[in-house]
Request: fold
Amino acid sequence: MGHPWIPPQLGYKAEAAIVNYYSLDSSIGGHTDHSEKNHDAPLISVSFGQTAIFLLGGIEKNVVPTPMFIHSGDIVIMSGPTRLCYHAVPKIIPNAEFAVDGRWSTIMSKMRLNLNVRQVNL
Ligand SMILES: O=C(O)CCC(=O)C(=O)O
Ligand SMILES: [Fe+2]
Reply:
């Protein structure tokens, strides 16, 4: 299947996915994702549920990070110059306006799920 927002010449292969579960008091510290063999292949993530504060730093740890919100349904692509940048999720912010159908609303009101898709091979 093609990915309309990824240039086909990149030959991106979605080979693995990490599901990150965040309760309302979860966080993930500053890190880079460098275990994959091909650092030209972007990291693509889709988020569901409660809002996250996302910090995007630089290639070096001493770069002051840019804070941004990631809301439910947002897609973050770390590619090109940002592929190996430091990043973190220091805080989950409950979103009072969050609503999805029925039982999902109750379940997702207490968590954030982040599906992080990766190409791991060359
Ligand atoms: O939860 C997120 O938005 C980021 C997760 C992440 O950085 C990772 O799985 O490496
Ligand atoms: Fe990461």
Summary: Residues 11-118 form a domain with the Jelly Rolls fold (CATH 2.60.120.590). The first strand starts at residue 16 and ends at 23. The CA atoms of residues 44 and 74 lie 11 Å apart.
